[in-house]
Amino acid sequence: MLYDDVLVLLGEFGRHQKLMVIFTALCSFTSGPSQLSSVFTLNIPKHRCALPGYDNDTYQIQDDYHSYLINQSIPSHSSCMLRNQSIDQNGNLTSREYKCQSWVYDKSEFFSSFVTEFDLVCDRAVYKTNAVMVLFLGLLVGYSTLSTAADMFGRKPLLVVCNIAFVACHYLMIWSPNYIFLMFIRFLLGLSMSGQVLALYIIGLEFVAPNQRIYAGVASFYTWCMGSMIYIGMAYFIRNWRTLQIVVAVYVTPVLFFFLIVPESPRWLLTRGYNSKASKIILKSARINNIEFDKELIEGIKVQDKVTKFKFWRMFTNYRLCIRTLIIYFTWFASSMTYYGILLNMSILSGNIYLNYVISTALEIITYTVVMLSTDKIGRKMMLCISLIVSAISLTSCIFTLLYAPSDFDWLTTVFAIIGKFGATTAFCILWFWTGELFPTELRNTGTGTSSAMARIGSVVAPYIGYMTVSISGAFGRISPFVVFSIICILALTLSTIFLPETSHLTLPETIDDCIQLGHGFGKPRKLKQVEEEIKMLKSETKM
Fold it and tell me: Where is the secretion signal located (predicted)?
């Protein structure tokens, strides 16, 4: 009897499985705020050069004399230059512009951020972008390496170590004395976060029967949004970045006790020969689900160890598979870069930043509900194409509103950007479900993992796309991120429409040859009656 058969006998998605999905999804309550924190703690507010010799200078104009000094000393529309005017010996007025070394900041939205405390503006603005990027670099490294640690040492040990590091990083960030220290801690935070999410995600999947695993995946998406909403509320009431970081550190501390409620994966224990430990967990699950389970059945459980029979490079030996795999990678990259590019740079849009994020996050919750209810009915390919079309049209519209709409209609750019993010979120969510159906059984985990790595690369690049608004002057600088996002979405849409096959209601490919035939006759619709009969036979054999 296979381990998945045990899950069927335990009720597939009984009370214990539901509790496990809830417990593992709770992790996203903390990972959401951790990823979103840079939006507020590393925010670049409106600023200008500090007036030389004016000790109590503020960004807000104090009186007419203060306004006069600003007009005389600050070049028009400049945040980084000062103007020095003097009269030469011939009585001519001369003016010289030079870079300033200190700034004053608008405190209407943020009383202080790491950027304002360490003056990461103008020539040093790229440092802020680097600090945002390094968290995603940690995630990329973690997702690429820590899955091996989970297989070698177990899911729970990885969870314990990463939870300790995760909480420690939040407390250490409170006392960040300089930029280098913050960069190092944010990298470790991303690394620990990846191990934490990876361990809990795998445990959640390995406790749930195959046909119910979509709920284990989507549950974490919902809690990510809820955690983000909580963080936005914290940031709204706490405008000092160090105080906000203290509150967040306290907020994430309970994850240290997750090991008390989350057990080791029975599947992993069985693959390592720890049958007695696995037996206790399985019997406990049966007891919670109010199901009688014969202890002797556990001795006969067979678990397929995750040994790859095919080398992944074989996916590139056939031109059809090669093109398909590369397009899957690119679509993951495009969706992730667009999603995080808008998410992390929403502060450049007009309107209240807190309200913008609340609306954006609420739309994400709607997105996941729409995907769950409609993807099987409409099809993976159609849903992906619709989402990319919505994203491409909305982001292209941002270009025209920024160039041609009067300033009174800046809100329209914000609306289009949020809709564009909605489309990217939908595409991102669909890819999680679709990618595994495009790879053969022995390469399904590897294919999904490497595709996810492409998404992490997209998130690493995203902050620099937003930085183009600072590094490129003029009107093109304002529209450059939306130009890039629009082109990327249109390209991903075109390639996906032409080359990727529909897999909805088809059997999963088992071999490389099955993958080649996807979209060309392979894949019979799943027969529910046949599956139900097999389950009945399995249960009757167990009772005998």
Answer: none
